[in-house]
Write the structure tokens for this entry.
Amino acid sequence: MAKFKTSEGKVSPLGATYDGKGVNFALFSAHATKVELCLFDVSGAEELERYEILTNDNNIWHIYLEDAKPDLVYGYRVYGPYKPAEGLRFNPNKLLIDPYGKKLVGKLIWNKAIFGYDVDSPDKDLSFSSLDSAAYVPKSVVVDDAYDWAGDVKPAHKFEDTIIYETQLRGYTMLQPSVPDAKRGTFAGFAHSSVINYIKWLGVTAVEFLPIHAFFGNRHKKGYITDNYWGYESFSFFAPEQSYLSGNDLNEIKDLVKTMHQHGLEVILDVVYNHTGEGNHMGPTLCYRGIDNSSYYILNPDNKRYYYDTTGCGASLNVQNPNVLRLVMDSLRYWVQEMHVDGFRFDLAPTLSRQHNNFTQESGFMYAVAQDPVLQEVKMIAEPWDVGYGGYQVGAFLPGWAEWNDKFRDNVRRFWKGDPGQTAELASRVSGSSDIFNYNNRDIWASVNFVTAHDGFNLRDLVSYNHKHNLSNGENNRDGSDSNWSWNSGEEGESDNQVVVENRILRSRSLLSTLLLSFGTPMLVAGDEFLRTQMGNNNPYCQDNALTWIAWEAITEQQKHFASFVRQVIRLRKKLKMFERHKFFTGHPIDKSGYKDIAWYTEAGKEFTTEDWHDAERRSLGACAYTGSKFVLLILNANFKAQSWKLPNLPEKLSWHLLLDSSQGKVDEKAAGSGKLIEIPAWCVALFEIKK
């Protein structure tokens, strides 16, 4: 490789930027004393050249290489004090990826050279490693962002029209028979027509991918017996996971997004900016720790050798530092502007919104998002809890944000499990959870309603297991939540008892019907629509195998029928238009007629009284809602037996018309007239609307 002619370059943008004539490199480090840019062959195996970066303006080290082109492979060596007790962990023997690198080459090889300290020393991380890590770590690659986006139109679904479908990109197509073998588990595989057409057929409007940023795999090389699968150990916020590319071209991601947009599907990314894969003080030095440990991570103020951690993953990313906050914001804008994604779900979002270790709406991150014109155009969804002090913040995010609502999950699960004392809370959950989100003029869609997620039991296991079965994870069944609010219907695990099987199917239909007919933004987990099982494993984060992959060819006719039912309910939700409502219900009359925007009815056809609300043994609820265009009546019966139900009286010439019976045909539609007494089957959701 010929030596490049160099010049100072520019401080912005950060990262490696190709301008048609050369490449500008810019790296933030506030405490480094020296930075070297290292160039490698195309495989990343051999270091060819090294350039000392001589210019540092405002803590940005920058250099320009004339005639350098895309596909150039590079990394950094950063010099400075190695004083772990003071939070400084510089070690130029460690080759570091670019925090702004948009592509990686080479695999991480778990070797003692990737640690900044001598792993064999009794002093552990206080010692210093002289081993060179370059042979064992991925390298960054210069890219050209040019792409033909002609014809791409973002679906731009309103939040109130959104139905989210959460999935792991790899596992969705690993067993998809229509996808060519070489493309299974990749962006190109997901873009296959068989995949897109199925999702379109189902009727959801957005696909939310578990993390696709480059992350740690091969956990067995860290002493674990299984691999990382979900991807919540990101070590780059720009570069995608290499194993998700079928080739070597980033345009594969853009092709997928463009294809999904053509079919009216939005792309939402689950992003993990709260921590990195470098972990705690005993973790490897791959990027941020070696570039400027005390800037990128929040240190323990009492002992800077250690980290302040609100994530449970070793160390919290320090977005209170303006340069680290800039990294996060630049990453978000990159994925919107260059990759055209439509939204983000933020893992452990309170960690990003802390000031002096306390959550606040006045955090730099919250304010930066609120004023950013690019991010105003996409969906922002918070997982509103972390494991730090005061970390549970459901309902506390600013207007414009949606939030995962675990109270909806737990209450709906318990109601359909048959637990006492759930009905009063259910009224709030199905009507948008105003007790949580109705402040500061927030909209009703702010509640992201879900019954299942990637974390925890999936739907089939929720009705088939009383206890988690996680032994295959290799942690003696200690991992995963014990608070599942599940019920196995009488037998643990798979069963051929038809009474048990029928009960599970009835409750599964009711659970998803409740989800899809509640106000707020519904989220489904891929596979729940046809009752896929994970054999009782409620924490399959490390199961990159058939346990978590969707077995398309094993889907039975009964499962296909269930998927058709789910599709029917989704279509009904869209057709009714009732969920386009923005504001929360008040319970007050809508006009002089005296009819309320929402009212709650008992099986006697009367509105709930105070005594009814406090009846812990009540397991049924009727909700009559007015949406501006029509009245609907939703009846939920979680009793073990059918229940006689008197439909509310209506003015002359009006009658109740049955739209949905989750028990599949056991409600007598002909009897559903004004003031008529009908029978609602056990474990059933029924929906009616008023017609002449």
Summary: DSSP finds 14 helices and 29 strands in the chain. The first strand starts at residue 6 and ends at 7.
